[in-house]
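Q: Hi! First time doing this. I have a protein sequence and I read that you can turn it into a structure. Is that right? Here it is:
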Amino acid sequence: TGDERSAFILSAPAPGPCCAGGLCGFYGIPESRGSAGEVVSNHDELMKKFFAQPDALAYGNTIGNVREEGVPEKLREYKLFWGNRFSSSLLMTKLDAYAIGQLLVLYERGG
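A: Yes, that's right. Below is the predicted 3D structure, encoded as structure tokens:
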């Protein structure tokens, strides 16, 4: 749903490029309000990305990883990036007014 997708945005409190001196935040909601009975729901795919993005920022992607993934030689340079970038992940039980208020307090107090 729209409210679930909006919770998976990447937010940076300071203007400018992501993670250039600012904190990257990832927000996730474990329960889906989407369609039941799907083999792999869209929400499951979003949750996989929710957990993968902070790992990617922390560990980066090396030429060895890119080779193992089978990326063509001409595209490998575009798949490389440095790690050691900090981020925070917040897993909320649901996205409601109370949870949004908690996020606002967190940012107002400098988290």
